[in-house]
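Minutes, project check-in
Item: structure for the 574-residue chain
Input as provided by the requester:
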Amino acid sequence: MSRNQTASQDQPNNSVPMQRMLATLAACAAGVLATTAAEGFESREHREMSDLAVSVVLEMTKDSQRVRIPQKSIEALEKYRPHYGRITECVDYFMIPEKMLAFGWKNSSTISKTALDPNSIPSIEYPVWEGLLKQCVPQSMATIQATHHNHAHFQQDLLMALRVWHMNAIATAQTESNVYGGLFINSISDHYLHDFFAPGHLVTSRDRLTDLPSTATHDLANQMGALFRPSLSKENTPGALRALEFLCQADPGSFTSDNPQCAPSQEIEALLNVQGRSINIRIDDLKADAIALKNGRPILLRGDDQLKEDSQARQRTLMLVVQVASILDVLEGTNSLRKFHFSFSMDEGLPTAHTNFGSYDFKHTNKSIPATLDDSKYTALLKREEADQSAKYFPIRFTPCSFGGCKDQFYEPRTRSPIFSLSLQRESHVNRSAHQRSMVSIEGSTVGLVWDASKFSGEWLDGVEIVPSFGYTHYHENGFRGNGPLLRLSASVPETEFSLGAYARWLTYPSSGGNVRKASFGLRADTGFSGYFTFFISGGTDHAVNSTGSLSKGLILGAGIRVGAPWTRMNTNR
């Protein structure tokens, strides 16, 4: 009797069936798909903030001393009001926002029962809502594509998208006399305006990182927060100051003093606090927040689902008044969002971002913080060590903060959340067709090197991302099973999601002489959506157990699927 047969009789085959492993992987993939999109804020936060801003603008229009807008424009805002927040929210679900504008043409070319504007841009006469909002489905394949190709939501692309869409909105309202359409376009612009206040969208070099490392960097920066210095003045941001004065029920122009009056009315309290809304603004804090914003006192900005937290009350107020100014621009034909600047140093891993309404401060030192951030509400946030300036590539730093354990520290741009992934593959020995095995691997990585190759490579390759991964593999093969550590070094090409890398693993085999551990080596190529899942093929040399119980070495080929997520996405206690 062969050793194979003996093993089958003496030891029950308790290998996990392939179907069960596939079901497990599918469940993991579903969980990752539901949580991995790198959004600036939760969809609900986008919608609620926009709805609140529209409500404030409509209330301001009732006060002719503060706002003088033609009645026709006010009517357009009132009619568009139910859709403003939904469209702002929907931008995350479209790979190209222009598709939202072109939907009218798409709809009219099928079986539309309503008359549509030949220019497609919505107007009071042709609102074009039939079917559009039905496209905003978070788990649709279109959404997966949108989050895969979402470079316009990050860094310099974010600021340019914000600027271009906002200017387009003003032009549509003024030169085409279509205020309704201008508001539609501006609700797209305001999505990018919100994303600007999520620090993860400024520190993440999206066009130099593939999906999963981008998500890891984005999530951690949004969780830990970054310093922002408001710059509100009568000259640079008149719309935002008017909004602050209105919320405080102060006299027009009174916010030019160092200690402006702020006594919100009950009507303002009812406007800012609505039952069931997660981003309400408390009027008992409004005076302190208004004075702090007017005087340029630094605040801590956070993204994702952090906006609803009590600690982010001042951030909500800042975002509200800036978005109110954005909407007023469309109604009044002015531009409050201008003077954008962005730069990013690959060597330092530090961005520089500022506009006329404020700037991020990523280059602060521990000594300079207490002198400027003197608000007692944030004194607990001053516990921070100096950033390590010796690192010369981005991202590289790994600290306990990556596991969500440093709530009272400021984000250090090189810190990145660990990435974990689960792979399921099937391998076959080429020279022994009867030998096939199912393998399950768990991998983790915490550091990476981004090589900016644009100066040397010409047009075909602008950068390479190199990431080492460490993990453990378990296999089942013809009644036998084994396991062992693995090491993989992959080189990925951003914007293509293709990666190629070498792997090494040390698996145990039940030979006739007992369990032995043998090293094997090979290459693996991945493609797909690295923020969610990838398909891969692999090839190399490995060992197999013969019927006599001895080991033989030969060529092995495999294919599989991998799902992954950053720790910050899996940590539900953050």
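Outcome recorded: The mean pLDDT is 79.
No further action items on this chain.
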